[in-house]
Amino acid sequence: MPTEAQKPNETKEQFNLRINIFKKTLELMTSAFALVAALAWNDAVQMTFKQVFGDLSGLWAKYLYALIVTGIVVWIGYKLSKLQRALEKRDAKN
């Protein structure tokens, strides 16, 4: 008996392939939207940096910006990895 989403003449293997393609498409679309959001945030942070520090277009200003953004990203990554470990420990207990 076919599942609800399975077409009448579709084998289980074909159905699984179709589902996997759909899942991968969703992952790629999510990644693309995340990239667009990251670019928007990058522009916003650059404009904020420019507002705070003025029109510093020198090389050192670019490095300062890169260091600040890198520090923020590393801090967020660290916090997210701690959260992931805590969730994995909690999941292992259940």
Written description of the protein model:
The chain starts with 11 loop residues before the first helix and ends with a helix. The mean pLDDT is 85. It is mainly α and 94 residues long. The protein has 2 domains: 10-53; 56-94. Helix content is 82%, strand content 0%. The chain has helices at residues 12-53, 59-93. The protein is built from 2 helices and no strands.
Short description:
The protein is mainly alpha-helical and 94 residues long.
Domains, number: 2
Strand residues, percent: under 5%
Helical fraction: over 70%
Radius of gyration: 22 Å
What kind of assembly state do the chains in view correspond to?
single chain
The global form is elongated
What separation lies between the terminal Cα atoms? 34 Å
What is the chain-wise order of helices and strands?
A: HH
Average pLDDT score: 85
Given the helix and strand composition, which structural class is it? mainly alpha
Number of strands: 0
Low-confidence stretches: none
- State the major sheet: none
Number of helices: 2
Summary tags:
94 residues; mainly alpha; 2 domains; 2 helices; elongated
How are the SSEs ordered, and which strands pair?
Layout: H1 12-53, H2 59-93
